[in-house]
Design goal:
Elements (H helix, E strand, L loop, with lengths): L4 E7 L4 E4 L5 E14 L5 E13 H10 L5 E9 L8 E4 L5 E14 L15 E2 L18
Parallel strand pairs: 4-7
Antiparallel strand pairs: 1-3, 1-5, 2-3, 3-4, 5-7, 6-7, 7-8
Length: 146
């Protein structure tokens, strides 16, 4: 079986980088994707989905260095599913309501924002920062630093 997910969206906040106990860099990105359409009544509708993206190794360090809130990125990766349900991770908020988290393990991150666009630092257009190293696939949930 094969699974591949491709997202194009904007960062909702600055990247957060941590290190696993074995020293592997892990950067967490929050990416928003949007869809717009006109419904049967002629009204413009918009839907936004938020994705938590984990990037590993040298690619994580590059993302942390060059990306910032508002930057446009293309993410290729796999969906991380809840081991119990096989779907998105479900959690309970402080107010008692439930939410779901769509999590992606990135294999490739491409910077799509033009230099100076959508954030403070320039990343250049369509810059690829590589693939996830093989060892990242063997990290357990307990080894992730967040």
């Amino acid at each position: 079986m094969y699974q591949r997910l491709v997202l194009v969206g904007n960062l909702g906040r600055d990247p957060e980088m941590r290190y696993t106990p074995n020293g592997t860099a892990v950067t967490q990105l929050s990416v928003a994707t949007s869809s717009k359409w006109t419904d049967a009544t002629g009204q413009l509708k918009e839907e936004t989905a938020w994705w938590r993206v984990s990037v590993f190794g040298k690619q994580a360090e590059t993302c942390n260095q060059y990306l910032s809130k508002g930057k446009k990125v293309l993410i290729e990766g796999t969906l991380v599913v809840d081991e119990k349900s096989g779907g998105p991770r479900v959690y309970q908020r402080k107010d008692g309501t439930y939410g779901a988290s769509f999590e992606v393990r990135a294999t490739t991150v491409r910077f799509l924002s033009a230099k100076g666009e959508g954030g403070d630092n320039g990343g250049g257009g369509m810059t690829s920062v590589g693939s996830v190293p093989a060892e990242s696939g063997s990290l357990s949930e307990d080894e992730l630093p967040f």
